[in-house]
Amino acid sequence: MGWLEAPGKIKGCHEDQSTGNAAKPPEFPEKVSGPAIAHSNMNTLTSKLPFELAAAMAHLSAGDPRLAKLIEELAPFEPEIDHTQSPYEALLEAIVYQSISGKAAATILERVKALGGAGRDHSPRNERAEPGGAGGTSTNRARTLAGTKLDRVPAVDRRVPTPEQVLKLSKRQLRKAGLSGAKILALRDLAQKTMDGIVPTHEEALELSDQELIERLDSVRGIGRWTVEMFLIFRLARPDVLPIHDLGVQKGWSVAYGKKHMPRPKELERFGERWRPYRTVASWYMWRAFEEAGYAATNKIKKPRVKVRRKLRVRFKRVKVVALKKAGRRKA
Fold first, then answer.
1. What is the mean pLDDT of residues 237-260?
2. Can you list the domains of the chain with their CATH numbers?
3. Contact at 8 Å (CB) between 161 and 108?
């Protein structure tokens, strides 16, 4: 399966408005408890992260007692970071996986790869996966992307058509591979923007800020902010990403902080300021809290409260006062 699977209409999952991608909270290893167990693999993971995990845990625990309890009791922060894919390759898979089952998307992706030829490296701009890199070579490799369990094909089979090849493919060829008209337009836009340098190489992406990457990649047809945020977390291991529109994060927050309603995105964004500069790690534990609670509990969490604007409240109050005065005059 691709790195961004759309598992369908799952209660409590996020659906990106622009892409239709859904995300459940991450699937984790068996529950562990106690700081010694929870952080047992920290040294191994830290070497793969561009930030110090121990410092992140200490910072979050010191500033948020509720989060400190989650960090102590739940499974450790262990995302499988894959540095072998370029932004072009990752987004191409994301587009293919939109709004269909993972099995169907995997089949279509293999057909798309076949259109690029076989036995040659088709990574854009001659980017090649490092031997023995994070991608590995084992089949059915389980990984998580905001809760989606993804089965990776061997690294040698993960090559996709280059941007140049995509633009040369006819609409008939792409439709025959199983792509919809909208996805064909999205793939062609991705290919063109990659050739134009708007979609960066992996090396270039490492030098860009989160906001710069969001602005660039969000400009691609069919790619929304949530998709880019998942890319930042699970491809670049950026430490300070908070997916405020992800329902798993929203409901996980409600579980963790004992709320009956989900937070509004802006409310979650304001609350998350206390987690800077490690909002990615905090988001992980919100996903984890969501999963630990189970659907029976999280389905009871209500939608965000509708915030009545102050002007409307004042106007309603004035109307009410006028109505009371009229009623009083009638009685008199």
1. 97
2. 87-234 (1.10.340.30)
3. no
Residue 158 has a pLDDT of 55
**120-154 confidence digits (pLDDT tens):** 344 444 343 333 333 332 223 223 333 333 333 33
Q: Closest by alpha carbon to 23, among 94, 108, 107? A: 94
For the purposes of burial, counting CB atoms within 10 Å of the CB of 199, is it exposed (0-12), middle (13-18) or buried (19 or more)? buried
> Residue 149 and residue 2: Cα distance in Å, rounded?
10
Angle (CA) 296-297-302 rounded to 5° is: 115
Whole-angstrom distance, CA of residue 151 vs CA of residue 2: 8
Residue 140 CB burial class (10 angstroms; 0-12, 13-18, ≥19)? exposed
The Cα–Cα gap between 160 and 93 comes to 9
Amino acid making up residue 59: H
What's the predicted TM-score (pTM) here? 0.71
- Sorted by sequence, the CB contacts under 8 Å of residue 303 that are 6+ apart come out as 261, 262
- Residue-wise over 256-278: b if at least 16 C-beta within 10 A, else e? beeeeebbbbebbeebbeebeeb
* Structure token digits, residue 157: 């089979």
